Amino acid sequence: xxxxxxxxxxxxxxxxxxxxxxxxxxxxxxxxxxxxxxxxxxxxxxxxxxxxxxxxxxxxxxxxxxxxxxxxxxxxxxxxxxxxxxxxxxxxxxxxxxxxxxxxxxxxxxxxxxxxxxxxxxxxxxxxxxxxxxxxxxxxxxxxxxxxxxxxxxxxx
Length: 157
Known about the structure:
By secondary structure, the protein is mainly beta. It has one domain (3-156): Porin, CATH 2.40.160. Helices cover 15% and strands 64% of the residues. It has helices at residues 3-21, 25-28, and strands at 30-38, 43-55, 58-69, 72-86, 94-109, 117-130, 134-143, 146-156. The longest helix has 19 residues, at 3-21.
């Protein structure tokens, strides 16, 4: 089974387990889908995430992102602790967030020429977004010694 499928199945299993295990997840946390544009390879990405409340306003964010560039599939799996803070003076739904975590970046070339590589990374995250079932966001993520901006939207499921 391919690495990306395994990551997706793992995230799905954790999401379903989390929904059954924590009544607070239905209130403060969510299972979501993300899509947008990232600057690492100047390509669009898709992803899935589980946002689990630890202690208000801290949340645990388990996420998987995927994009393909130059015949190479890229998967990023991250586990981050994120602090969310309201920016109500600007807009009642606007929230800012900062976080720290770690992840695994997998590069899987199409074809038999090169093997799959995996690198660990430390994530430093900061951004702003709107709260709600559809959450547009802008995020700066410094991972694997390379700053990456992400512009996208999250859909809470």
